[in-house]
Specification:
The complex is a heterodimer of chains A (315) and B (628). Chain A is an all-alpha fold and 315 residues long. Chain A contains 12 helices and 2 strands. In chain A, strands 1-2 form a two-stranded antiparallel ribbon. Chain A is globular, with a radius of gyration of 24 Å. Chain B has 3 domains: 236 residues, Orthogonal Bundle (MetI-like fold), CATH 1.10.3720; 226 residues, Rossmann fold; 87 residues, no CATH class. The chains are: A mainly alpha (315), B alpha/beta (628). Chain A: Belongs to the binding-protein-dependent transport system permease family.
Amino acid sequence: MGRYILKRLVSAIPVLLGISIIVFLIMAAIPGDPATAILGSYATPENVERLNRDLGLDKPLIQRYFIWLGNVVTGDFGRSFTLNRPVLDEILDRFGATLILAGVSFVLCSVLGILAGVVSAARQYGVADKAITFVVLIGISVPSFFLGMMMILLFAVNLRWFPVSGMWPIYGTRDIWALLDHLVMPALALSVVATGVIARLARSAMLEVLRQDYIRTARAKGVHERRVIRRHALKAAMVSIIPVLGIQAGFVLSGSVYIEIVFQWPGVGRMLVDAILTRDVLLVQGGVLFVAACYVGFNIAVDVLQSLLDPRIKT
Amino acid sequence: MSRFLKLLFRNRLAGLGAVVLGAIVLLVLITPLLPLQPPNVTDTANRFLPPFSEGHLLGTDHLGRDLLSRLLYGTRLSLAVGVAAAVIAATLGSAIGIVAGFYGGRVDNVIMRGVDMLMAFPYILLALAIVAALGPGLLNALIAVAAVNVPFFARNIRGVTVGLAHREFVDAARLAGMSNARIILVEVLPNVLPVIVIAMSTTVGWMILETAGLSFLGLGSQPPVADLGSMLGEARSALITNPHTSIVPGVMIFLIVMSVNLLGDGVRDALDPRLRSGALARPKAVTDVRREGAVPQTPQKGLLDLQELQTQFHAGGRVFRAVGGVSLHVKPGECLGIIGESGSGKSVTALSVMGLVASPPGVITGGAVRYDGTDLLSEPYEGLRRRRGRNVAYIFQDPQATLHPLYRVGDQLSEAILSHHAVSRAEAEKRCLELMRAVRIPNPGSRMRAYPHELSGGMRQRIGIAMAMANDPDVIIADEPTTALDVTVQAQILALLDDLRRERGLAIVFITHDFGVVAQLCDRVAVMYAGRIVEEGRTDDVLALPRHPYTSRLIDCVPELGGGKRRLEAIPGLPPMVDDLPPGCAFAPRCHKARAECTAGEVDLGVTGDRAVRCLYPEDAPKREVAE
């Protein structure tokens, strides 16, 4: 198992390099030059040229890539000119908030989605199946940002169950209960679409598995139907559900952008949108790279989980 | 095409989606003709008018602009951008996928590596990065959304193309000297088109949503022009004071995306042939029983008694009579063979006993299955479950498919025991070891911890037999247990079954298509054709003097070792489909002795002593001498 994890980690290196190239190229393709953006349009040509030289922007693209890569690997993502602090510091400050939001949402959508899918498949064409299918259909069609706004209107403004926005109370203690109080609505709003997608997939995966011969074998030896569904069928269905969980993790992680904006959640997503609007290139570059790298790491974890589940995968 | 539309609209939800979407599209098409106020003219004196105000059906926004007008123009924009993104992504992605899949090799490798890199990004993050590079703006948002969807299309279409690139018609086109470009256009593209349409119909909703999302963030359409997303984004600051400005565009996005999704699912279901006959229905825990006639009350003949059993498959409006009134019995210690070609109904007969026929589509429509006198077909689920594996156990054909791939074989064995006995795990494992020894598995201790894919076919089938033996059943139904095995292993498995039968007084129902196996193992044999028994008797008698022409042809199909050279006679023609059986003898169309009377009316099973035959002109001359 240790060897398998190591192998997957090593195989992630080219992927990470590829990601870094894509991020670098996208940022290098930005029209206009960063020096003008930093100095403003009233800067003198001499100043612009000097800054360009200082930033190393007069060197060839490939050289610039390797200099940039070397810096990134050593933890130097550059300096955000709008915030006037190192990019990495800003990202690390904010990533925790995103991780809490996305992590809780991911757990929610995985558990609820699989549960709904299993119930739906077990009661195919029954009342529960129809109800779940209907709710799922609505869930995957509602934009998360609109859903979040409507939740604020209903649960925060009208019913006063939860605070309107933010991660912590403005006054008062910052304990886990205060955090949960603030987390319920954004986490739910963020997880709804992914829950729907997972539920649909889990349902069809279960239906597919339930037709297999080994399910008939389990029934033939007198295994109770409850156990057939919960153990035999679910375990086999997980083989096709887990990869989708990995994809949905990406949706939840990057979809948190909308939710962070709607609920004023102090995460990386909001930072990215602000950075794009202020054209803070290094901050965007660093943020995108950091989140994408985390996602690659998460996918390795998914692969390892899959290999634990399925003995047919060569470890 | 009309078949496609019919299928599509048979799906009521898809129809609903089509109607809603159609109405929205129609509305935005005629928007410029409607007597609306200009969407971008501000009137700050009339800010935030509520819906149903004078002259403003949906009210006004924070700058006093008419919401209805902005909504319709915004919808126009959102739909146009979403559909454009979908078309661009589908075209580019499919082109890349077809090229990669068609050329294969290095081209494929390089392209797919790039696609994998792009897919390693979380979707929205990549769109953000692209907008960051291009700058905010609706056109840039469109490009970003299209770009992040290209890898999805490329990968899907590549998969389909790889399958097509080596098919005969492509090879034929190559041999005919067609250029690669022409092959792609003429032979490949028409075949991947349905997949492209499915992929598009299921993703266009996402793309509309994503463009709206970017606009919502202020990265898409820029003021004063608004699409639905930016309308929602602008309204957000007044969410609490004037919620209607948020609700109006939000509900519209929801309606569009939902109707597109409904329609998309409908298109997918209509184009995906797997779903056409409802093949994805899940088999229930017990086969449905809907007996039409009275339950037969024939006196008990054996331990397991099948009486006039009828099992049908109801699929797509057609009724397949897989088992059309079969009566069989087996006594303790006896081995009964059921023989017939594929599709003769022998497996369905066997599976009907314990309600294991997949249902839907299977339904047991008549007769009775009695175990020691009790009718199993009227038994409730829990009662039947307790009998499964304990009274009647099964051994199935292909142990590769019939053992659960993700559980260790030892666990699958103990589960059989634990399902019927409240013993400890350790006790169950001890039993397992005994069982594995009984079926002559060497090193049972280490084999217990193996997964099915780690064992050979013969070992797997021994596990299957051990599993059937786990609860000391009285009857074992073996459904072609040796068909997937090679000949030497087959002989070992048959010998094992025969030993177990003699040691434990088991009744065995042995299903096969091989008369050689029947001769080796079975005391009696029943020959099935088109869902009915055509001949039954003691194995020696039937082999010595087959009376039904079908039986004698079937015996002629078996080559004999040391029997000298002789012509092996294949039976001409194919067994009939059981949804539309002609009257009379089902074998008549393939029978060399058939006369007009054979197809005139029902042919009864004529019983004389322990022989039975369903034929008007049975064979009577001995076919060959039996060595005594």
